[in-house]
Amino acid sequence: MYLTVAETAEYLSIPEEQVRALILEKKIRALFDGEQYLVNKDQFTTHFEQLEKYKEWINDYLKEPIPEDPDVKDED
């Protein structure tokens, strides 16, 4: 499914100018049909899956308890 620049900006929650800049920098693949750029929506699927995976890793890391240090000695 192809999206226009405006639809891509809404989908990614970023300004249209930033989408155009990313297209011109070739960070987002797009087709120019003579009038406008068209962006394939499927290219973002992997990106969003990776973001979710990284969020899970970070949450798991933050939930892990701090291990007790064996070198800590009781002063008493």
UniProtKB/TrEMBL annotation:
InterPro entries: HTH_17 (IPR041657), SinI_DNA-bd (IPR010093)
Gene Ontology MF, one: DNA binding
Protein name from the UniProt record: Helix-turn-helix domain-containing protein
Transmembrane segments: none
Domain Helix-turn-helix: start-end pairs: 2-50
Pfam families: HTH_17
Top-rank lineage group of the source organism: Bacteria
